[in-house]
Design goal:
- The protein has 13 helices and eleven strands.
- By secondary structure, it is an alpha/beta fold.
- It has two domains: 68 residues, no CATH class; 256 residues, Aldolase class I (TIM Barrel), CATH 3.20.20.
- The strands form two sheets. It has a seven-stranded parallel beta sheet. Strands 1-11-9-10 form a four-stranded mixed beta sheet, covered by helices on one side.
- α2 packs parallel to α3 and α7 runs parallel beside α9.
- The model has no long low-confidence stretch (mean pLDDT 94).
- The chain binds iron/sulfur cluster.
């Protein structure tokens, strides 16, 4: 019998609860960030009567979900929820509360900007039923924030993370690798951003590599040669390292790359977008993780046994990882599925 070593899967176990997204494009945003094109990214139109329309549509959706016995967490995205004008944040939370028990709403989260995370306001919204805030930090790096006209600095981003935690809310952190001023370099700002984000003890991260969308300031800079986006190879390499760091910290990454909304892909002018970006990044992180395990123990693998659920990540998009496995002497015939949750490595 060849020696067999068991290696657990590195990804933290995720509570894969369904999130029902309510997109409120640009609502509450004080400025347009240089890269942002919410209607394209979310597939929802902005407009003057956006909030009453969205509120009425949400009521209809919740009534229908209640009738059908469905349940989900509500997520308010696409704008700056904590800075919605008037009492709209309270009105949306009030509507969610109406459908809480025994209705379809199991929880409520929102995204917002770090400079709209006043502790008193967060406490009031928590009392109205908000449970998690995903902060669009984008970067903790002063020059990247300044070049992206974000309007706040690293101190404000860190203070916002603390304010969310101190309010007793779950913290999510959204980062935007490839912002203007962010070199595609393992020693550059992005992996430091990831480390700083993990220091904030978030419940989850989202990583959205920066792409150039029409109508944005970034598109103008790109056309003038003043902004060069990361290549897909650069993004996948750095995102793979970032994902592995998150796995090691036990923090789930709940989104890698923009969701493929209708019409988004055709509209991307430049930048590292790929429909299978998440899988391609997971494949790289997984290979690095297993490679490090084998190297540090000086193991020469004869066969790799993989959980069925991880096989496509092991082989990679269109089997693109086979060349990497071959460097360990593992051709496809030596990669086998087994019915365990982690990996098995048979040694020579
Ligand atoms: S990135 Fe966020 S804060 Fe900036 S314009 Fe877009 S939705 Fe608003």
């Amino acid at each position: 019998m060849p020696a067999l070593h068991y290696i657990p899967h590195p990804a933290p176990v995720r509570d894969r609860k369904k999130i029902f997204p309510v997109f409120l494009p640009y609502a509450g945003c004080p400025t347009r960030c240089v890269y942002c094109a919410q209607p394209l990214a979310t597939g929802r139109a902005a407009g003057r009567d956006l909030l009453p329309r969205a509120w009425a549509a949400l009521r209809r959706d919740l009534e229908q979900a209640a009738a059908e016995g469905r349940s989900f967490e509500l997520g308010f995205y696409g704008g700056t929820f904590t800075a919605l004008p008037g009492d709209w944040a309270a009105r949306f939370l009030g509507l969610a509360a109406e459908f809480r028990s025994p209705g379809p709403v199991t929880g409520v989260r929102c995204s917002t900007r770090p400079d709209a995370a006043d502790p008193g306001l967060l406490g009031r919204l928590r009392d109205l039923g908000l449970e998690m805030v995903e902060l669009g930090v984008q970067s903790f790096h002063a020059a990247c924030l300044a070049e992206s006209n974000r309007g706040y600095g690293p101190d404000a981003a860190l203070a916002a993370c603390a304010a969310v935690r101190d309010a007793g809310l779950g913290l999510g952190v959204q980062l935007l690798p490839g912002l203007p001023g962010m070199a595609p370099d393992p020693d550059g700002p992005f992996l430091r951003d990831v480390a700083l984000a993990l220091d904030q003890t978030p419940a989850c991260l989202r990583l959205y590599p920066c792409v150039v969308l029409p109508g944005t300031e970034l598109a103008r800079r790109w056309a003038a040669g003043a902004y060069v986006p990361w290549t897909a190879a650069q993004a996948m390499d750095l995102l793979g390292r970032a994902l592995l760091a998150c796995w090691k910290a036990g923090v789930p990454v709940i989104r890698l790359g923009l969701a493929p909304q209708d019409g988004l892909a055709e509209n991307i002018l430049a930048g590292p977008w790929h429909p299978a970006l998440g899988q391609r990044v997971r494949s790289r992180a997984l290979f690095t993780y297993l490679y490090e395990k084998l190297e540090t123990r000086n193991m020469r693998p004869r066969r790799l046994l993989t959980p069925r659920s991880a096989l496509s990540d092991v082989l990679g998009h269109r089997h693109e990882m086979l060349a990497a496995w071959a460097t360990l002497g593992l051709d496809q015939a030596r990669i086998r599925v087994w019915e365990e949750a982690g990996f098995g490595v048979e040694l020579h």
